[in-house]
Amino acid sequence: MCSSLTVKKRRLLPHSLLWRAFLLIATLMLTAVAAWLAIFRQAEVEPRAHALAQTIVSISNLTRTALLAARPERRIDLLAELSDIEGVHVYPAEAGDHIVPPPPTALTRHLEHDLRERLGPETRLAFELNGEPGLFVSFSLFPGEEGDFWLALPRERLERRFPLHWLGWGALVLLLALAGAWLIVLRLARPLKALEGAARQLGRGETPPPLPERGPDELIAVTHAFNQMSQNLKQLEEDRRLLLAGISHDLRTPLTRLRMDIELSVAEPEARAAMEADIAEMDRTIGQFLDFARPQAIDGQLPQPTDLAALLAEIAARYGEKVQCRPASAEFSLPAHREPLRRAIVNLVENALRHGGQAAPVELTLSREGGDLVIAVLDRGPGIAPEDAERLKQPFTRGETARSNAGGAGLGLAIVERIARAHRGRLELKPREGGGLAARIVLPVS
After folding, report:
1. Confidence of residue 7 (pLDDT cuts 50, 70, 90)
2. Choosing a second label site near 8 at 20 to 30 A (CA), which of 25, 110, 207, 331?
3. d(CA 86, CA 88)
């Protein structure tokens, strides 16, 4: 259960360098913006509290002065005028007043401290008076006496509304910054993507075109090294082809002359047949070496649409009654290198004839399994142990019953495996129901 949850969490994370770098830069930018907002908010608390305290002290002093200077019968009219024009209310303080203190924030603590320093230590600050909300500050008409009036101001003078247009401009700037980060990361990831594609081509045995060497110095150095490696491999491949052509000529020509000399000089039929069989075996071994060394993906040639059903029927016709080709239920065609694929199927057919062709005819089948096409060569020979299947695909490997290539160099199945991989497929060796071996070349339709 834990492992499945871990896999799901890993799948939520992006795997490409482009998205990982972009998300990292975006996270750092958002963190920096949030940190700056927090710093700004903390830094502006104290100056804002001082400014608000100065305003309240000024209003309180002006109100006190106006009340003291006015005649007692005119004070009520003066308070009404202050309420209508300035929005300032003055209430007489009573012993039974119910007040609600302000919330304990940094702003209210600084404000209360400044007010007590300027108006006196007996000054009180409230957010609600007898059920009426507002910003209430106590003051006295005569210094030294207990506060006998409440100065009420709108609470909006303390609260700050966040301007929405600032949020819009901030979002626009953030989007522009993220777009710039995306372009920067894309500029770095695009050469790496091209390098990945070229590396995949090289892994399939193809020679990719030289990559453009541009970008940062590190990418230029990596691209230059890859281009140099690709050219060196291309030169090695050309040298190998030349060497293979020389080996084929220099070895098979003497074998041909030796076969002719045996036919002319050896009188005994049994000895002549044995020597000719040995020469044929040597020629077949040389052919296997050449097939194994030959590149299975031909440079400069794209895979061509190949009718697999027709190809199997053509191969089966070469062997007569020894090989039976089951007709396909539908037409199967996919891009492939026809000759290398033919060589792989022929290797499996001859291997099946050598080990199981005496018991029953070898069967060729073609089917579709999900997104794959399966070419199967079926025989009734001794088969291969499941634990030996992968080992026998390796070059120069032979089992106890020599299913990989009796009397040869142990390259038959290795050649088939290389050709299957060149077509992005695989070779499977499975026991056949009822006895024998099912050698399957699995090719992806895409």
Report:
1. very low
2. 25
3. 5
Domain count, the chain: 3
Closest CA to 207 of 172, 166, 174, 241: 241
**Do 285 and 312 sit in the same domain of this protein?**
no
What lies within 8 Å, CB to CB, of 335 at 6+ separation is 302, 303, 304, 305, 306
Report the alpha-carbon distance of residue 301 to residue 159 in Å, rounded. 75
Domain of 360, CATH number, reads 3.30.565.10
Are 404 and 412 in contact, with CB atoms under 8 Å apart?
A: yes
User: What would the two tokens of residue 219 be?
Assistant: 């990418």
Structure tokens given for 256: 């041909």
Tokens of 268: 């005994």
The pLDDT confidence band at residue 357, using thresholds 50, 70 and 90, is low
Residue 417 · residue 340 · CB < 8 Å: no
Per residue in 75-100, pLDDT tens? 677 777 776 666 677 777 877 788 88
